[in-house]
């Protein structure tokens, strides 16, 4: 971004540290998703971010630090999008529906995040828990309480909030993962309503 001075010269507006960090993370997300951890080039990331390679290392001491920060950023953005979507909704059923649709919409907009998760799993190989599941586990009690509220309302056939939460979360995560790695690339926004209908109404007609 640039501005024009009083004497007609162009002066480049300096980005804040947060903006440069964000540019680096955005560039790194695309490069890591496409090339994986080992084949991702730090100079290419710097070029895509519009900064020098030294600037990248001032923000992230190692390539591993940048990789983990990129995944952390992706999961935080997912969490923020879902939280924003359900803000102000009191009905537990509508909270779960809205959460599911917002989750699917995120991966429709950022499909490369699935690739990041796959590369992270390959890189960790059992050394530590993937960040997606670290965040999921940290919020599990909150979501299980929402499921329990729905059960307590008398609208559910089952009475196990843990089973309900596992079914919803596994369906959501599994759907975006299979859609990406299978190459189907179906519209997740359109899939969401069908999956929710299947989840909450079941497959078979009532006897």
UniProtKB/TrEMBL annotation:
Listed GO molecular functions?
Answer: DNA-binding transcription factor activity; transcription cis-regulatory region binding
Keyword vocabulary terms for this entry: DNA-binding, Transcription, Transcription regulation
Q: Which part of the chain is the HTH tetR-type domain? A: 18-78
Q: Which InterPro entries match?
A: Homeodomain-like_sf (IPR009057), HTH-type_TetR-like_transc_reg (IPR050109), HTH_TetR (IPR001647), Tet_transcr_reg_TetR-rel_C_sf (IPR036271)
Keyword Plastid in record: no
**Coiled coil regions in record:** none
SUPFAM superfamilies named among the record's database cross-references: Homeodomain-like, Tetracyclin repressor-like, C-terminal domain
Q: What's the name of the protein?
A: HTH tetR-type domain-containing protein
Q: Which organism is it from?
A: marine sediment metagenome
């Amino acid at each position: 971004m640039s501005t024009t001075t009083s004497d007609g010269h162009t002066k480049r507006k300096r980005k804040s540290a947060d903006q440069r960090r964000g540019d680096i993370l955005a560039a790194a997300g695309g490069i890591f998703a496409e090339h994986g951890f080992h084949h991702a080039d730090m100079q290419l990331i710097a070029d895509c971010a519009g900064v020098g390679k030294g600037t990248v290392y001032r923000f992230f001491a190692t390539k591993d630090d940048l990789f983990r920060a990129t995944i952390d950023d992706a999961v935080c953005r997912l969490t923020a999008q879902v939280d924003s979507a359900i803000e102000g909704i009191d009905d537990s059923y509508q909270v779960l529906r809205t959460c599911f649709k917002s989750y699917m919409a995120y991966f429709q907009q950022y499909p490369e995040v699935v690739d990041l998760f796959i590369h992270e799993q390959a890189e960790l190989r059992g050394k530590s828990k993937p960040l997606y599941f670290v965040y999921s586990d940290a919020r599990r009690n909150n979501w299980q309480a929402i499921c329990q509220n729905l059960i307590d309302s008398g609208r559910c056939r089952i009475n196990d909030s843990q089973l309900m939460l596992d079914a919803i979360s596994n369906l959501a995560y599994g759907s975006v993962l299979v859609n990406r790695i299978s190459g189907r690339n179906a519209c997740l926004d359109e899939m969401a309503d069908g999956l929710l209908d299947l989840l909450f109404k079941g497959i078979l007609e009532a006897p």
